[in-house]
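User: Hi! I have a protein structure encoded as tokens and I'd like to know what sequence might fold into it. I'm fairly new to this, so please keep things simple.
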């Protein structure tokens, strides 16, 4: 009986949990979208897509002072150029979608379709990280940054 309890304790310590929410709504009251966000502390990862096209657009951001800022298809630039800035309150996430390069700002509003606490195996989180290209040099550098979003999506 003691051995059984020890195995469960070890197994539970090898897992972590993250909150994942699925949302649906619109941008500018006329462009239907679906969105999935996964929260890891104050970091947020996910994607959204326009219902018409179904192509996933990567989102990465953070929660700061109660606001969620999500960059689209993020790169290593620190400046926010395109994405969502809004508030997650109750069962809705709303605010503004902005494209600074095009000087365009549209309101968005989504509602939570599902809100789940997902248990993630340690083996999954262990592969998260930045992997440098073996061919990188002083002149050319490339890498891949793997972060778990959900299911088999990184």
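Assistant: Happy to help. Inverse folding works backwards from shape to sequence: for each of the 154 positions I chose a residue that suits the local structure. Here it is:
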């Amino acid at each position: 009986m003691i051995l059984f309890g020890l195995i469960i304790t070890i197994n539970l310590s090898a897992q972590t949990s993250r909150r994942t929410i699925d949302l649906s709504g619109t941008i500018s009251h006329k462009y239907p979208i679906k969105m999935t966000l996964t929260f890891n502390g104050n970091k947020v990862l996910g994607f959204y897509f326009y219902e018409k096209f179904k192509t996933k657009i990567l989102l990465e951001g953070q929660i700061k002072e109660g606001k969620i800022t999500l960059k689209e298809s993020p790169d290593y630039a620190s400046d926010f150029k395109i994405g969502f800035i809004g508030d997650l309150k109750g069962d809705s996430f709303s605010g503004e979608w902005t494209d600074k390069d095009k000087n365009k700002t549209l309101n968005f509003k989504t509602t939570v379709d599902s809100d789940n606490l997902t248990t993630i195996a340690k083996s999954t989180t262990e592969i998260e990280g930045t992997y440098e290209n073996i061919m990188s040099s002083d002149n050319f550098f490339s890498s891949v940054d793997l972060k778990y979003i959900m299911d088999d999506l990184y």
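A useful reference point when you look it over: The longest strand covers residues 104-121. Feel free to ask if any position seems puzzling.
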